Automatic annotation (TrEMBL):
Region (Disordered): 1-20
Organism annotation: Dissulfurirhabdus thermomarina
Organism placement in taxonomy: Bacteria, Deltaproteobacteria, Dissulfurirhabdaceae, Dissulfurirhabdus
Protein name: DUF211 domain-containing protein
Cited Pfam families: DUF211 (PF02680)
Domain of life: Bacteria
InterPro entries in UniProt: DUF211 (IPR003831), MTH889-like_dom_sf (IPR023129)
Length: 113
């Protein structure tokens, strides 16, 4: 593939395709008991590009809860999502699943499953 040349004579890579959109995000989050998951879900649901939010509590300790947060939308913005979670006292432990592109591709079963 040929590269275009700038006026300075330095090679310039061909233009890149449009940025892929983030469609689904599954996060493992540690949060305090307050705010509750209703408040966090509502705060995340109003972010631009978010179509839906699901939060499941899977472990409760004396002071904190571990939750799985699943977000789906047309163009999720991870930085905004991270900021809302952080501002509400949460910490993202891991990003457990990501779906990008024009459509959401479901995981296909394999013989190992």
């Amino acid at each position: 593939m040929a590269f275009d040349t700038t006026s300075a004579g330095k090679p310039e890579p061909p233009s890149s395709p449009a940025r892929p959109t983030l469609r689904r995000l599954v996060l493992d989050v540690l949060k305090p008991h307050e705010p509750n998951i209703l408040a966090i879900a509502k705060a995340l649901a109003v972010l631009p590009g978010v179509d839906g939010v699901d939060i499941t509590v899977y472990e409760i300790d004396a002071k904190v809860e571990n939750v799985k947060i699943t977000l789906e939308g047309t163009d999720l913005e991870f930085a905004r999502i991270r900021n809302v979670i952080h501002d509400m006292g949460g910490a993202i432990h891991s990003i457990d699943k990501v779906s990008t592109g024009r459509v959401i591709v479901e995981e296909a079963p394999t013989p190992q499953d």
